[in-house]
Amino acid sequence: MNNAIGTGNTTLSNSISIEQDLTLLGGDSFERQLMLLGTVSGTGGLQVVSGIHNLHGINTFTGDTVVQSGAILGIGNPFALGGSGTVTVEDGASLQLTSQENWQVNVRQPLMLAGSGGSIPFALSATHGYSKAWNGQITLTGDAKVGAFDGTSLSLANVDLNGNELVMGALSHEDDSVIIYGTISGNGRLVADSSATGGGALLTGENTFTGEILITGGALGITRDSALGDFSNTITLNGGTLRSEIITLANPLFIEPARSLVIGENGGTFFGGVRPLNIGSTISGENRITVQGSVGFSGDNSFTGPVSIDPNGRLSIPADSALGANTSVIEFLGDSTGNATLSLPSNFTLSADRTLSVSGERGRIVSSGALTLAANITGPGQLEIDSFQGVTVTGNNTHLGGFSVTGTIGIQNDAALGAATAPLTLNASSLRAEADLLVPATRTLVATGWGGSINNNGFDITWNGDVTGDDSNFSKTGLGNLSLNGGVVLPEFFVYEGTLSGNGTFRNLSMAFRSELSPGNSAGLITVQEDLELMSGELRFAGSLQMEIGGDSRGLSYDAIDVGGIASLNGSLVLTFINSYQNEASSSEIFTLLSAGFLTGEFENATNGQRLETADGYGSFLVHYGDSSSYDPKSLVLSDFQSNIPEPSVCTLAAATLFLGWRRKRSF
């Protein structure tokens, strides 16, 4: 039957009976196809020699079907190839499962397959949507390529590689896929090479084949480790994705340690979707690894290329060796659609030889236990740390987005917090000093959640930047001095231990327990916009208000506090001279240490009108505050300094008297 002459498609609806092979000839144009809609019966077979032909009838012929090089045969229903004959597709030919009136095609004949097609780039393919299946045994007689396009799923049963290469491809649509649900046997190579975004290949069977698996494009999905065939099979990712697929959600999909994975020159991607993908085998190679979804590395890996964690990706490891060579950079690519997460074990140290790059907007590190991050952290994004038992950061980091911490972050120097402009965000969490710290004015501390805290831990901290956030309270704990010199834009700041100093501005400030309030960094001014409370009750203030006097300039050479609302006094008032001002102070000078909108309470060691000795013993002042004050009742004022230092003339006379007494004693 020859359809090579003339133009246009030819349709035959009549039934045909063949007792010998029927030969089909035709041109190579898709505009000149032969459509056989009637029934083909008899003991003969089909020889498709050339052209494009389609079988759509309910056929019963029992002979073999051969599609020769250059020819294309399409079948549109499960019975189009007749009875029990074998189907052969030669190198250069194409057999396509298509459909008519939305039939789903499931073909059961044995198939001998070779080649990569011709004008259709597959030896066996499926198109026009819906699921189509070849349920008969497939044996490769040469290297072969199978695929799907136009939103179609092609399912295959048992495949014998027979020493050849099988390429599985999805051509154009995200729903295109090739599924092998039976057993792949024999020796050969399996290649997943899809150009469709989101398309790919899927292996679900208990496969026994030996050889190589190469993933060069799209994704190769597996539902079990045994789908990858023999343990000796090397799996190479060279531009493609290895993806876990769902059979059960009970357990992650685990790739056995006996396997070997290689990352080729175009890199590779591991994707764990609803079902996590855990890779126990060794991963080697010099090129980029991309993590999508939930993935675990547990092998002793030697790869040297970077590891990129995509948005909504999560990489979990049990040990540092799972991250490959120390030269491997871990890149976080989180954005507004989802974070990029590295999950680390408890009591884990990420070594100083490693580099973490927050290359996206954000990244995240999580752990259920204590962490030490000695690695160098770079990039423009913010690194979030969620560690129940806290993290210690020891590197000199340069990332621009700073840290967002849930838990406790301990640092030994300001450089650990990243670039000088990088903020530190505490999510109901704490900053712990591991050494004396000097923080520049360009760095902001942000408190979120129900608040945060700074733990001096026995060290001194000078924080020159602002402390801000949402409507959260903040606190200082631990012995040591905290000097705040920026604005504290928070509802309430509590001090429970140690000393609070500096020239900061607070909204509300409360001092509790055995804490000390000492304005300035020598002499200085603290501003409280609303209320200052030296607390009583259960949090009774048993500490002190430490005020230094080094001149007659308020807030510059002697300490001062301005309170916009109520100042509640308690504890002790401690006065100390600085700048040798004890030698210059006079009884006529007035020092307004505190000015408030309203003043209540009293000091335990200095009531209104009482004279108070300075802690250094140089003299005493009259203390004035409250309703009976000789000055503003809303202010704390010192007056009438009386020096304990003898006048120079008195010292000279006393010395002369002692000398004269000594001479008289000698004369006896």
TrEMBL record:
This is PEP-CTERM protein-sorting domain-containing protein. It comes from Luteolibacter pohnpeiensis.
